[in-house]
Backbone:
């Protein structure tokens, strides 16, 4: 695996790893079964909405740890609104890039940060729960990375059809039959969707 | 060097290998590596013998070469029985017994499992297969076994076998196929027969010479070398188990495991991270984690042995050689202990209340 020196630096010596006692918000995303999980803890200055302290914990590979490290670096000192706008591409760029198969690590790190911010907003009545719809499914699919090129499956136009009816999500994917990432992409989609209570079944055709 | 003296040299190299597995030079064929030997053996045998039957038996934990070849023939009309394995990686002999039909022509196995080091009970397998009222050929991938455990193709009942030079400190890109006299295989690589009709075309004599030299060195004091490796791996395992909590050995303990392989899962952390940190400290190991695999999938051998995803992702394979020392093991385990603790400190799974 060819990692940049920055990835290796953050992996070997992450800047703010650990746990905050009595955090203002926390989020954990990913799953051990998939081999990566990140927790992010936040302390927020109430008046200014500035992230005054942030820490992460990570179960995963070198790039999982490095992306969690860079995202916490990037978010520290920013307002919630600013931190929300940090994208997975910016996080990857800040590490001088990631191998395409590892790009999903950056998505997970950003997703966890945004979830922590959302949890803070919910707790402080600054935001309400998003209503579930077909749009939610599309947003989730934008987080599924095709490992061969390191870009999401929506941008790559690999998703031919998305339907949501009566709790059943139907997704039609365009992916070559002998692609070694077929199973991985399908699993990633399921991982992103199955925690929604509104979804009873996920049908993927490809 | 002229053609005839080269032929003589090659005969000499074949003899060196033949002597180590109790066979004759005429039953050794040089190949461009273990994968080529596996392909020549399986494709050559099945295409030549399909008239006798079209059923083959293999296991779900075999080396990828073997499984890919079986799948290839399955697609073209062969029937394949995939034997399951128990939690230590031994193929299911009861299932083997039941799987045999009058149509079965080939049994395929990985003599020493490439992931967990399990030595398949080849004599028992031979006895089961010999009870059939027709000949079932035995094809063995011995790339992990050769030079690590004693191999006698006659007492073990092996008809076709692949071995690889680089696994015993020889050069990359050269291996050999053992083919028992009387077993007929067709050509799969059609072309000019320089030394035989299997690995056709130009051959790398320098690599073959290097292979033969590596064999001589490995077998110069086989018993002493393998005993030394086993002593080191026993020491590695006991050091890991005494110094690092929450680990699990994958594969059998003791003599039913090849001496050079130790495979351990570390709870709460992921193997690629361990591997990269070990590598940055100058220690090379392998992992069964999906994050380090082609296709981002958990290791299929570990999953077939009943490990869960976390245990597969957290697995590390150590491969030892006769050139390793006890001092190196001490350094490796001390580093490993530090690395495992560091990664656990960072892990949300370890820090759960």
Residues:
């Amino acid at each position: 695996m060819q990692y940049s020196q920055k990835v290796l630096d953050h992996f070997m010596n992450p800047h703010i790893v650990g746990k905050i006692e009595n955090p203002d918000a926390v989020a954990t995303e990913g799953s051990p079964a998939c081999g990566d999980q990140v927790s992010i803890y936040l302390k927020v200055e109430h008046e200014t909405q500035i992230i005054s302290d942030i820490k992460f914990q990570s179960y995963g590979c070198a790039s999982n740890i490095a992306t969690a490290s860079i995202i916490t670096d990037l978010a520290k000192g920013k307002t919630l609104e600013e931190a929300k706008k940090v994208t997975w591409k910016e996080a990857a760029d800040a590490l001088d890039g990631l191998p395409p198969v590892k790009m999903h690590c950056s998505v997970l790190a950003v997703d966890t940060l945004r979830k922590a911010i959302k949890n803070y907003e919910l707790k402080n009545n600054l935001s309400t729960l998003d209503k579930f719809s077909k749009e939610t499914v599309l947003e989730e699919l934008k987080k599924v990375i095709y490992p061969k090129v390191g870009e999401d499956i929506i941008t790559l136009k690999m998703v031919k059809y998305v339907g949501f009816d009566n709790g059943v999500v139907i997704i039609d994917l365009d992916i070559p039959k002998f692609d070694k990432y077929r199973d991985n992409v399908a699993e990633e989609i399921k991982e992103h969707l199955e925690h929604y209570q509104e979804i009873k079944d996920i049908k993927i055709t490809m | 060097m002229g053609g005839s003296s080269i032929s003589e040299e090659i005969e000499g190299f074949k003899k060196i290998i033949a002597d180590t597995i109790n066979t004759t030079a005429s039953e050794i064929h040089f190949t461009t590596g273990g994968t080529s030997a596996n392909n020549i053996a399986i494709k050559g045998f099945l295409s030549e013998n399909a008239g006798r039957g079209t059923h083959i038996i293999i296991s779900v934990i075999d080396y990828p070469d073997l499984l890919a070849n079986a799948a290839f023939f399955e697609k073209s009309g062969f029937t394949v029985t995939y034997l399951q394995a128990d939690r230590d990686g031994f193929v299911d002999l009861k299932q083997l017994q039941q799987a045999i039909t009058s149509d079965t022509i080939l049994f395929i196995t990985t003599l020493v499992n490439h992931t967990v080091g399990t030595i398949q009970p080849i004599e028992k397998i031979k006895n089961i297969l010999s009870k059939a009222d027709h000949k079932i050929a035995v094809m063995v991938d011995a790339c992990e076994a050769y030079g690590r455990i004693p191999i006698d193709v006659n007492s073990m009942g092996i008809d076709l076998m692949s071995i690889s030079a680089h696994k015993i400190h020889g050069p990359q890109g050269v291996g050999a196929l053992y083919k028992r006299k009387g077993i007929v295989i067709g050509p799969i690589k059609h072309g000019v027969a320089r030394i035989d009709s299997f690995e056709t075309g130009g051959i790398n004599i320098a690599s073959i010479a290097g292979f033969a030299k590596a064999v001589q060195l490995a077998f110069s004091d086989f018993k002493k070398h393998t005993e030394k490796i086993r002593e080191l791996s026993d020491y590695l395992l006991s050091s890991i188990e005494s110094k690092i909590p929450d680990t699990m050995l994958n594969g059998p303990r003791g003599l039913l495991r090849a001496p050079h392989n130790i495979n351990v899962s570390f709870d709460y952390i992921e193997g690629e991270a361990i591997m990269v940190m070990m590598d940055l400290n100058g220690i090379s190991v392998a992992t069964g984690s999906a994050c380090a695999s082609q296709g981002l999938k958990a290791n299929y051998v570990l999953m077939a042995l009943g490990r869960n995803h976390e245990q597969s992702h957290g697995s590390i394979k150590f491969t030892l050689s006769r050139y390793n020392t006890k001092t190196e093991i001490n350094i490796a385990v001390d580093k490993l202990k530090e690395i495992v603790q560091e990664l656990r400190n960072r892990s949300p799974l370890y820090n759960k209340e």
